[in-house]
Specification:
MetI-like fold; 14 helices; 77% helix; 292 residues
Length: 292
């Protein structure tokens, strides 16, 4: 009798668990899995002329398109520079904020403002500051050099502005994550090392880094995965210009679809990022399982 009651209880709990995860599962199918499958079908079967094709035609056309090679290079550059600067800066700031000083709670709150404010508001404000006619940054550049900088109208400076905004906007979020990790490190480790005469650099190198190593790897991997799809920063600041030189894969896919009507090439462009994202996702899962 007792075993039968226990089986009914387990069965009821199991059904209740399925009921709770069903909305998420249906949402996943509707908003993530279905668009992915539909995109793969379009990439292999759609052309702008309306003809149905089977095979790699859209992928070959995309690879041979000069703007795709530029977008691929910019995506790799953006990931290599912006992500690393953002994560290293976030870790250093978190290490500073982890110390007790007067007004540290206020500073911790203020540093989150760039991430907490709406991204569209931040982007438009930043773009207006860079405007060549009445932007405040352009005004100071002209005052100092006597020449217009036109920071969003040259490839090198435009990419620099994109990276600067991305770091400024997203570093506070990772700072908060790292700060949470740092606060979980036992204070006794630092106190014992300080008694032995360890400097601040030695504390950071021999205690902080080893203790936060796995958290940093997980955050870095997540940041790479999320940054691959970065769209709004590039599209609002430069629109892919000048002369389509600052496109990344996400903005180029939008251009192929809605400017050129090449939906097959658009989805093919996005699918080219999957070979990079999938191994990173698998690596992330393995790291998390290893820590558990």
């Amino acid at each position: 009798m007792e075993g039968r009651v226990r089986m009914k209880s387990v069965s009821r709990d199991t059904l209740w668990g399925y009921a709770l995860i069903t909305p998420f599962f249906l949402t996943f199918l509707l908003l993530l899995l279905y668009p992915l499958i539909e995109g793969i079908i379009i990439a292999f079967t759609y052309t702008s002329s309306g003809e149905t094709v089977i095979g790699l035609q859209n992928f070959i056309k995309t690879l041979n398109h000069p703007e795709f090679r530029t977008a691929l290079y910019n995506t790799i550059l953006f990931l290599a520079v912006a992500v690393n600067i953002k994560m290293v800066l976030a870790l250093l700031i978190a290490n500073l904020l982890n110390k007790e000083f007067k007004g540290h709670r206020i500073v911790r709150g203020l540093i989150l403002l760039p991430w907490a404010l709406p991204v569209l508001t931040n982007l438009l404000s930043f773009k207006w500051m860079l405007e060549p006619t009445w932007g405040v940054i352009e005004y100071f550049v002209v005052s100092l050099t006597g020449q217009k900088a036109l920071l969003l109208y040259h490839y090198n400076t435009a990419m620099m502005m994109i990276i600067i905004f991305h770091v400024w906007r997203n570093a506070p979020f990772w700072t908060l994550i790292f700060l949470s990790g740092l606060q979980s490190i036992p204070k006794s480790l630092y106190e014992a090392a300080e008694i032995d005469g360890a400097s601040s650099i030695e504390l950071f190198r021999h205690i902080t880094l080893p203790q936060i190593k796995y958290l940093y790897i997980v955050c870095l991997t997540l940041s790479i995965i999320w940054t691959v799809g970065e769209f709004s920063t590039i599209w609002i600041l430069t629109g892919g210009g000048p002369a389509a030189s600052t496109h990344v894969l996400a903005t180029l896919a939008y251009r192929f679809a809605f400017d050129l009507g090449e939906f097959g090439m658009s989805t093919a462009t996005i699918l080219f990022a999957l070979p990079a994202i999938l191994p990173l996702t698998i690596f992330l899962v393995q790291i998390i399982e290893r820590r558990e």
